[in-house]
């Protein structure tokens, strides 16, 4: 299993490039119906956009993350004493003290799905909920998606957060599946030029560890295809969804 991907390098552009607080509200709306009342821990809370929206819905929310620069934003959003710098595989919480543990687009960057889910199960109280949004991600077809097909296949091939992996981790940790659903569609806009720029800036964590040969053979041709599309500055709809898995202890 690879190292966790810590987001220090993108903390200052994270919200602007991933939908910001509007995405946080949408994600919170999608998962809030699965939570039980009480203390809710978001593991890998990032800049806190989802956690803040859960807090605004009335939940008592705390968060942990490995990245200090990401956490600085979460601390500002959630208020004093609400966040801590910690690894998902060693949570600074006593066993059986948390009502909900939430992973939002986190297991694929944590990498060690089994370790993170086991640690979540440890801190959950009996009857508590684990809610995870995870892969595979699916984006509705556009010319951008056609241009990115090989890159998307590469991303899928290295993703550790498949439903099978999440299920195996949960079963090993003594959790039972309550439900698995497809998330409500996330709706953004993106142009071929913006996609190409984002890839070249390595905004997306799956690009961070690619070797030079893969960059040359897969990434550069994808960027060239994007830049060759007609009207490269014209935004296209970017509609995507992921899996939502709900477990109980
Ligand atoms: C894609 S961001 C998601 C942040 C937030 N959940 C959201 O939806 O906006 C993934 C986060 O996981 C954090 N992370 C990666 N590995 C971690 C680990 N082992 N323990 C805690 N956080 C980790 C990164 O630093 C980053 O902030």
Portion of residues in beta strands equals 15-25%
Tell me the radius of gyration.
18 Å
Count of helical regions: 11
CATH architecture call of the domain at 8-139 and 159-188 and 240-248:
3-Layer(aba) Sandwich
Instruction: Tell me about the largest β-sheet.
Output: 8 strands, mixed
Percent helix range: 40-55%
Under CATH, the topology of the domain at 8-139 and 159-188 and 240-248 can be stated as Rossmann fold
Question: What's the level 1 CATH class of the domain at 8-139 and 159-188 and 240-248?
Answer: Alpha Beta
Q: Low-confidence runs (pLDDT<50, min 5 residues)?
A: none
In CATH terms, the superfamily of the domain at 8-139 and 159-188 and 240-248 is: Vaccinia Virus protein VP39
* Alpha carbon gap, first and last residue: 25 Å
Give the distinct bound molecules: S-adenosylmethionine
E-strand count = 8
Please trace the helix and strand order, writing H or E for each element.
HHEHEHEEHHEHHHEEHHE
Q: Summarize model confidence as the mean pLDDT.
A: 96
Shape: globular
The class by helix and strand makeup works out as: alpha/beta
């Amino acid at each position: 299993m690879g190292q966790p991907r810590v987001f220090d390098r993108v903390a200052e552009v994270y919200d602007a490039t991933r939908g910001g607080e509007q995405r946080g509200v949408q994600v919170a709306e999608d998962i809030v119906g699965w939570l039980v009342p009480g203390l809710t821990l978001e593991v890998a809370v990032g800049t806190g956009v989802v956690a803040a929206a859960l807090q605004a819905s009335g939940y008592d929310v705390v968060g942990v993350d490995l990245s200090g620069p990401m956490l600085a934003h979460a601390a500002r959003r959630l208020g004093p004493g609400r966040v801590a710098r910690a690894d998902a595989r060693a949570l600074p919480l006593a066993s059986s003290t948390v009502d909900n543990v939430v992973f939002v687009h986190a297991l694929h960057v944590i990498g060690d799905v089994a370790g993170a889910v086991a640690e979540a199960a440890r801190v959950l109280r009996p009857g508590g909920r684990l809610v995870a949004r995870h892969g595979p991600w699916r984006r509705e077809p556009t010319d951008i998606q056609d241009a990115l097909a090989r890159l998307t296949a590469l991303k899928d091939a290295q993703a550790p957060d498949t439903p099978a992996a999440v299920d195996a981790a949960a079963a090993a940790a003594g959790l039972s599946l309550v439900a698995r659903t497809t998330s409500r569609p996330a709706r953004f806009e993106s142009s071929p030029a913006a996609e190409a720029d984002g890839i070249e800036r390595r905004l997306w964590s799956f690009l961070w560890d690619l070797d030079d040969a893969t960059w040359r053979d897969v990434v550069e041709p994808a960027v060239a295809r994007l830049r060759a599309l007609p009207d490269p500055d014209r935004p296209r709809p970017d509609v995507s969804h992921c899996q939502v898995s709900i477990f109980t202890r």
